[in-house]
Amino acid sequence: ALKIAVVDIYHSRLKERQRRKNRGGDTWLFVPAVLERRYPKEVQELYETMRRFARILGPLEHDKFIESHALEFELRREIKRLQEYRAAGITNFCSARTYEHLKKSRDEERLKRTMLSEVLQYIQDSSACQQWLSRQADIDSGLTPTVPVPSTTGKRSAPPLNLTGLPGTEKLNEKEKEV
Predict the structure, then answer these.
(1) Which of 11-15, 42-46, 79-83, 99-103 has the lowest mean pLDDT?
(2) Minimal CA–CA distance to 67: which of 59, 55, 77, 56?
(3) How many Cβ atoms sit within 10 Å of the Cβ of residue 93?
(4) Cα Rg for the chain, rounded, in angstroms?
(5) Of residues 111, 87, 109, the one with CA closest to residue 99
(6) What was the pLDDT predicted at 142?
(7) CA dihedral 90, 95, 98, 102 (to 10 degrees)
(8) Angle 101-106-110 (CA atoms, 0-180°, nearest 5)?
């Protein structure tokens, strides 16, 4: 009885090995990794999560599953875009193209305004402006703007911070600035 049990176990192992061989084993799991780059980030995350269940489904069913979720993601994105048009009062696609063009130019203008306000913040104080310009020149030339000061104890100490021109420094007293 013991010998028959050992032979049955051996045969079940052989059958399982043959079944895996006929299915293609795990080699098909590496092929979709190249194809997953065409999906948006959210679908790629789903793909990584569902990869462990691919053995159960099989390669074709798994690919269909991922494709259906990619299609669902695209449809949801399109629905949001159309809802945005509807909220803006747009009723035809010709107006939608004009709306997208104006929206893009507004976003670019908003970005320019935020960059300009950042630069204007430094222009108010002339010493801070010069310091900012020299820092930007160092960054553009590839140098690091802060150079650590070597110490004799073997430990590197941090250089003193220059707080001139930074927002909120006028509220600090001298002792707080030193700390």
Answers:
(1) 42-46
(2) 59
(3) 10
(4) 32
(5) 87
(6) 67
(7) -20
(8) 150
Beta bridge partners of 157: 149
Helix axes 59-87, 93-123, angle to 10 degrees: 80
What's the 3-state SS for the chain?
CHHHHHHHHHHHHHHHHHHHHHHCCCHHHCCHHHHHHHCCHHHHHHHHHHHHHHHHHCHHHHHHHHHHHHHHHHHHHHHHHHHHHHHCCCCCHHHHHHHHHHHHHHHHHHHHHHHHHHHHHHHCCHHHHHHHHHHHHHHHHCCCCCCCECCCCCCCECCCCCCCCCCCHHHCCHHHHHC
Backbone φ, ψ for residue 67 (5° rounding): -60, -40
Beta bridge partners of 149: 157
Matching residue, tokens 């795990």: 26
Model pTM above 0.70: no
Would you say 22 and 59 are in contact if contact means Cβ atoms under 8 Å apart?
A: no
For residue 72, what are its two tokens? Answer: 């669902």
∠ CA 106-110-115, nearest 5°, is: 150
Check if the beta carbon of residue 152 is closer than 8 Å to that of residue 158: no
